Target: Transcriptional regulator, TetR family
Amino acid sequence: MSDTKDKASHHHGNLRQALIEAGIELLTEGGLDALTLRKCAARAGVSHAAPAHHFDGIDGLRVAIAQEGFVRFRHRMLDFADAGPQTPRGRLHGICKGYLAFAREEPALYDLIFSFRAHSKKITDMRESSTPSYQVLRDACAPFVPPGTDPLIIETQVWSLVHGFALLILTGRFGPGPAPEDAVLALLDRIGTPPEPDR
Model:
């Protein structure tokens, strides 16, 4: 019975995506420790051997889930940017709000996509998916890069602000009440502006 189902899934090209979706469900329900190939196969309704046809072990599955996560992450940022004022500053705020929304709505997936360490093979495997997400940030920051300034400086300022704030929210730094999102993101209005003179 399971062999027949596996063959049907292979035939329709849906098995890989079904396993990724199953992995995201497990990740959401129980965190990274709940994510195993066997559990993904069971959740997807296929034999325990089926994932081996699509992923190089559990690390391969994690990379595939992270790749899907980056696609969702990018879409969330763009959705918020497109829904707000269509000015450079408005889009910058929108992208950052979408960043925070994704972190709140899919915390386990958010944790996973930022869990891979620099210079690892997994980072290389994900570059094709993560680069478009970073490009969204880069495009939003571009209008605020002062002449003669390395764009990476402005991009890092914005990314550090929103990513650090997201982590503080997810770790419960602000307790049960709402996080001061508007007040913190107001700092974006100073990005790219010259500092005030010392008094």
Summary: The chain is about 65% helix and 0% strand. The chain has a mean pLDDT of 86. The two ends are 78 Å apart (CA to CA). The chain has two domains: 1-55, 65-190.
